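Lab notes, practical 5.
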Amino acid sequence: MPLSVIGAGLGRTGTMSLKIALEQLGFGPCYHMTEVFQHKAFEPWDRAGSGQPVDWEQVFAGYQSAVDWPACNFYRPLAEKYPKAKVILTLRDADAWFDSTQATIFRHVDLMVADQSTAAGRMFKRIIADMFAGQLHDRARCVEVFNRHNAEVQKAIPAERLLVFYPAQGWAPLCRFLGVAVPDQPFPRANTTEEFLQRFGDRLTGG
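Output from the prediction step:
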């Protein structure tokens, strides 16, 4: 099935909450970094990060939507591949985003990229570390890249196809954009720092 929703927001901008929300709204299953680990699907993203051609239909077979890293780095080719898909850019305060990365994924990426003999290590280097020129703990550098990415998305994707979305806004703008009814339940809030470390800590450190 073709993707109907593409998430362009970087990790730690509420992408897990968006994944859960999309699945509740009928746009699931939703592809997220959790699926990469669950299925050990590092190889195609390693190839994509090196500029090699990737069979996107194979990568996203069975999925209706995709959010978070690594997919968000490829929002442009995915938007071209799936011209009917809508694009959602999740946002949050840039400094709060940086602080969150330091407590979670960027805290471990150095260890991941140290071993370039594995597809997982190469994927993290090409998809995340290289995006920030390896300066994953430099606030000014990371915030600049974060802001530039968000500006580029808004420039590249036509306004009628794009939702700039702060998850704290809740269901209303998301449901209006997707043309579905607002659920009678709270908007999901997931993958806090504590939940992230519980879910990914051992996987990222090799434990």
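Observations recorded by the TA: The mean pLDDT is 92. The longest strand covers residues 86-90.
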